[in-house]
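Quick sanity check, Thiolase family protein:
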Amino acid sequence: MQDIYVVGVGMTPFGKFRDKSVKDMAREALNAALEDAGLAANRIEGAFFSNAVQGHMEGQHMIRGEIALREMGIQGIPVVNVENACASASTAFKLAIDFLKAANGDCCLAVGAEKMYSDDRALMFSAFDSGWDVSNGEQVAQRLADLGAGVEEPEGSKSPKPYSVFMDVYAGFARLHMKTFGTTQEQFAAVAAKNHAHSAHNPLAQYRDSMSIEQVLAAPPISYPLTLPMCAPISDGAAAALLCTGEGLKRLGLDPARAIKVKAAILRSGTDRPPEDFKNHLTRLAALQAYEQAGLGPEDMSVAEVHDATAVGEVIQIENLGFVEFGEGGPASLRGETKIGGRIPVNPSGGLESKGHPVGATGIGQIFELVTQLRGEAGARQVEGAQNAIAENGGGLHGVEEATACVTILGR
């Protein structure tokens, strides 16, 4: 079976762009990826287009990719639409890999674009309401609330303003972690402060102002223990990746020195498990599969991008990826082990909390960052000597964990 390489990446700034459409952002990201690779659009033999909420926000269902990409010359080839909640883009990336491994072509595109921000705030926040089982939403909400039973919520620690229902989901996970391991709100705040410091050096990030732990803790509350800077914002944006087989690299005359090898890509759905059975969390199991596929371990990773839709997400995921023992994610973050220059830099892009989270583009945004790091082209946020990198991207909720997750390992 042939090796697969990322040969071009492109990403728009993430933020709030009232004047840009899904088409506009997809075009910008794709053109950047084509320029990065030195390829023409007519060399692409298959495309996977990721988007999660355009149907909800604009009423554009079913053929989003065909519509978004046709004007860019992507026509006459397979175009597959991918919707897998917040893991949509990493799923599209995985499917592009599988397309090439199945010998369907030598060059394939994975692109995600999302326009989420709206002046209609009720419409905007309700985009997340179907990310769990809508047939028993009240029961799901109560079950998540019960996860944190026994952890007191201080008065005034819940926002009176509208916010995504998934912030309550993560708050439940956070309080369970606090109850089980003694994790503190300060440790979660350390994650957010670190990511805001990283994003100050990312010109494509939605937020670029550094924050201290004290500032994070003093910020407006969302759902205890989460404050506003600990939570990913509503974002618009797009990201694209071009992948080639080893033979395609030669046939297309691409520069092998800038090609980044895909060493593993694992996509899983969740399973039924007790909430305290952390060792069988779906991303823990996906990570173990990915390490086996790559012939590597956590100790071989130079840098990671993880799904920090909130700060607790990063704490949970660095444990699932094996960087620390279960329960040690909070203390390790407070000690600075996950900052650039630390033992294992996590989210040098600023993560979802600061870089932004246009859900249909997020997973490929992570790939963009890791390819940039492995090429040594990340500037002031560069992780020195990066050789292997891992991305974790999860989506939705089913039971007591994400409904789906993808773990990808890239390397030189």
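Posting the structure with no commentary besides this: The chain is about 35% helix and 15% strand.
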